Amino acid sequence: MSYIGSTLANLLHQTAFFNLTWGNFVMILIAGIFLYLAIAKGYEPLLLVPIAFGMLLVNIYPGIIASPEETSNGVGGLLYYFFQLDEWSILPSLIFMGVGAMTDFSPLIANPISFLLGASAQFGIFSAYLIAILLGFNDQAAAAISIIGGADGPTSIFLAGKLGQNDLLGPIAVAAYSYMSLVPIIQPPIMKAFTTKKERMIHMPQLRPVSKLEKILFPIVVTIVVCLILPTTAPLVGMLMLGNLFKESGVVHQLTETASNAMMYIVVILLGTSVGASTSAEAFLNVSTLKIVLLGLIAFMVATAAGVLFGKLLCHLTHGRINPLIGSAGVSAVPMSARVSQRVAAEEDPTNFILMQAMGPNVAGVIGTAVAAGVFMAIFGV
Fold first, then answer.
1. What does the pLDDT look like over 195-225, one tens digit per residue?
2. What is the pLDDT of residues 30-57, one digit of tens each?
3. Separation in Å, CA 280 to CA 31, 66, 71, 127, 295
4. Euclidean distance between CA atoms 373 and 379, whole angstroms
5. Least CB-packed of 53, 88, 233, 366 within 10 Å?
6. What is the pTM of this model?
7. Which residues, 6+ apart, have CB-to-CB distance to 74 below 8 Å?
């Protein structure tokens, strides 16, 4: 009987109930909220479901992301190996390839002024960098945090890994992906606050047709120009443009299909669950995390406002030919921000269709955020 009793006692103490802290319960609650937003409200479920489930797993069983040094048999937890792919910048680069294979750069090619709108939205990144330094973060940590302002999860993970900010990678990634998911909630009030009803009702002229040759040359030229100036952007910009070249060349349909579907979804599963698993209560519930979440929100709001304000300037200079709402799409959340621009415009005038014009700044923002990351890497000699 004593053997049975001791065996049952050992089994009982192996359950998670005896190891959970109040912090774990808080994180489990947050995971539940994320799952609710993803499933019930439809806020970017492809991102939030794996992130939330990874968060749930690690706060019930921390060993799922334990390193080999932390285990008795020298074998790390399942999600530890997924997370290594984040730290090595492999998954973010593959995400960019998939995005490139799914993205049509025609609106940007047809309206090159979109590059300026995409660049203006990066103001949120550099303003957050300065604020982060004022809040006590070191230069490299501040740079890694500031990229959240581009609403670009893969680039945030990429830069944090390159700058050696692995301790902050989890909070940075969760904040970045959370704000990407909340684009439809965060952006519209800012867009309406900085524009008038008359401006929001502006109809933009239809974009010119873009030739197949232009579409093929674009990824090649952008790769050469950007990577010559900032070679450190090659893993992101290079993979983005390679994926787009797959799509536009028309001769590698199998590669395009794989990059934009099977590979993309596999990478999202690996990246999402590993990012979520980096948010254990011990790592996530602290003052630094709260600062990162706040800084990310400030950066994203400033980026949105800067894009809209630059759009207003262009509207004035072109005598009302540019709807300022497309400036808010200069962040990297493709195609969410462009859809939000369209939705806000349609609220004022259901016949107003600016989605394609907004896609120009949107895809420019993807390139712009990668360039901003490259600038930081160049500054710190990475």
1. 999 999 999 998 999 999 999 999 999 999 9
2. 999 989 988 998 877 888 899 999 999 9
3. 11, 11, 17, 29, 21
4. 10
5. 88
6. 0.89
7. 68
